[in-house]
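Table 4 source record.
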Amino acid sequence: MGIGDKIKHAAEEARGKIKTKTGEATGNDRLKAEGTVEQADAKLKTAGDKAKDAEKDAKDKLDGT
């Protein structure tokens, strides 16, 4: 995947961590939950990117490039 997607997903995960920590510090369970969901979503997207990269690498090896 492109570097832009990787940066975007890392930023989403960081934003989720900030929400989670802010929710914990303020006792706001809703904000904490939103942050946790955002982190999980970003991690899932990152895993998908890694799988796509691995698939591309495997195809390139088979093609000899």
